[in-house]
Specification:
This protein has 344 residues and is of the alpha+beta class. The protein has eleven helices and ten strands. α2 runs antiparallel to α4. 26% of the residues are buried.
Length: 344
């Protein structure tokens, strides 16, 4: 029986030597220490099996196990200190900052396509003497509808089109035309103001529509203003936005707050007016609505339409951005995909 335990001890020595040589990290060495010298380790288990031997055999084999255990633990401790020191040095080398290395350049932000177009529009009209007023996004019925000559039964008042706030009959503005009324109430004519900002309507999200989008509204009120001034202003804007070869045309239309009213088309920027799939082979693309300020709107803000006249126009900034940068889907403007934004 003693011979069997001698073989077991020799196997234990060989196994420990192999495992110690193979262990190359602190974690592996600590695991090795637990497997051989822990409370349930191989050496402890070997001592427990000595109970079946005689007193003389216990003494002989115990005397052989103890020197092995002491020598093996000393060897394990020495390697553990050496490997631990190496890992500490490697970790310090990884975490140390070399101040002599060149710094990493910061990632600079990019202007959003809508911001680019909005700033361009504001600059165009600043050069023509317009003031810039974004106006409030939460508005009253008076400024958003009633003062702009929307009758009580007008479809735009339907809750399917407007987000109403259930506080004092407030709503999210459906257009930037509210700034027209506020500007004419605030200032005596002549008035020249441009408003650009977010507007809200209860629309489904599609390739070309969104419940939140951006509009730009222009207003000019002065003496002797006629539709020729409106056309010249819009032609200047279109050519500044899309190039000197861009053409423009006006078609009769209807808006409650202007009379006469018109829709404005520009020559297709993709086919240069020849006709393509984007413009439905017409050579023209609709970009905005406009007209002469309705006399009743002037009266609503205390301006005498016999002495003063004016024009107003509004366009979708999102639509202009889509045309200017050839973006086919309006969702692209609101997804904040860095792969898109980094192109601007």
């Amino acid at each position: 029986m003693a011979r069997v335990f001698s073989f077991m001890l020799e196997d234990l020595k060989s196994s420990f030597s192999r495992d110690l040589a193979a262990a190359s990290s602190v974690r592996e060495l600590l695991d090795l220490q637990s497997r051989y010298f822990g409370a349930k380790g191989a050496v402890k288990e070997l001592f427990k099996q000595l109970k079946s031997l005689s007193a003389e055999e216990k003494k002989e084999l115990g005397a052989a196990i103890n020197p092995f255990s002491e020598a093996a633990q000393a060897e394990l401790k020495e390697k553990l200190e050496r490997v631990s020191a190496r890992e500490d040095a490697e970790r310090e080398a990884r975490e140390t900052i070399d101040v002599t290395l060149p710094s990493r350049p910061p990632r600079l932000g990019h202007l959003h396509p809508i911001t680019i177009v909005r700033r361009e529009l504001e600059q165009i009209f600043r050069e023509m003497g317009y003031t810039i007023d974004p106006g409030p996004e939460v508005e009253s019925d008076w400024y958003n509808f009633e003062a702009l000559n929307f009758t009580p039964d007008h479809p735009a008042r339907d809750t399917q089109d407007t987000f109403f706030v259930d506080v004092d009959k407030l709503l999210l503005r459906t257009h930037t035309s509210n700034v027209q009324i506020r500007s004419m109430e605030r200032f005596q004519p002549p008035v020249k103001v441009l408003s650009a900002g977010r507007v809200f309507r209860r629309d489904e999200i599609t390739m070309r529509r969104s419940p939140m989008f951006h509009q730009c509204e222009g207003l000019l009120v002065d003496k002797g203003i006629h539709i020729g001034h409106l056309r010249a202003t819009l032609e200047h804007m279109v050519r500044r936005l899309f190039g000197s070869d861009a053409k423009m045309r006006m078609r009769p239309s209807y808006f409650p707050f202007t009379e006469p009213s018109a829709e404005v088309d520009m020559s297709c920027i993709f086919c240069k007016g020849k006709g393509c799939g984007t413009c439905s082979q017409t050579g023209w693309m609709e970009i905005l609505g406009c007209g002469m300020v309705h006399p009743q709107v002037l009266r609503n803000v205390g301006i005498d339409p016999e002495q003063w006249s004016g024009f107003a126009f509004g366009l979708g900034i999102d639509r202009v951005a889509m045309l200017k940068f050839d973006i086919p889907n309006i969702r692209t403007l609101f997804e904040n995909d860095l792969r898109v934004l980094q192109q601007f």
